[in-house]
Amino acid sequence: VRRYLKMHNPKSLDTLVGLFVILGIGALFFIGMKVSNLASYSNNDGYTITARFENSGGLKVRSPVSVAGVRIGRVTAIDFDNENYESVVQMQIEPQYNTLPDDSSASIFTAGLLGEQYIGLQTGASDEFLTHNSEIEITQSAIVLEEIIGQFLFSEKEN
């Protein structure tokens, strides 16, 4: 061991260990940003569409919007309509996806083990396309696990 330390400068070994630790911390930071959906910057290009849901569940601002499993945008705002008692979700769609039919539908789904929710769009068959400030008319709210369990328990109780 002494022979090894005499041959190699201990300061260069300390520098390598320090560099390795810094790279490890940087990798953990990068993974944390990816998991929290904060890694991608917000751009204002594209167009905004809205959809109304009876229940938006655990949907959050910056949740993905996807079609056929491909992310095409993000949720930019979630508001409450005091007149209709609905959740109004605003989405920013990237500009290259400007051929979504205006009779498309939107559903809130759950992805992954952590239960992250996202909006899935199913395309329609119309020749007209969604444009800036369009509203999606056909929606399906988030499935609330507690409601399903309650319905199951209530139906079992009746039997």
Report on this structure.
With 159 residues, the chain is α/β, with parallel strands linked by helices. Helix content is 29%, strand content 32%. The protein has an 8-stranded mixed beta sheet with strand order 7-1-4-3-2-6-5-8, with no helix packed on it. The N and C termini lie far apart (77 Å). The mean pLDDT is 83.
Précis, in short:
This protein has 159 residues and is an alpha/beta fold. It is built from three helices and eight strands. A hairpin with a 4-residue loop joins β3 (70-81) and β4.
Structural class: alpha/beta
Supply Rg.
Answer: 24 Å
Helix and strand run: HHEEEEEEEEH
Please report the distance between the alpha carbons of the first and last residues.
77 Å
Helices, strands, pairings?
Layout: H1 2-7, H2 10-35, E1 47-53, E2 64-67, E3 70-81, E4 86-93, E5 105-111, E6 116-122, E7 134-136, E8 138-140, H3 145-158
Which structural traits does this protein have?
alpha/beta; 159 residues
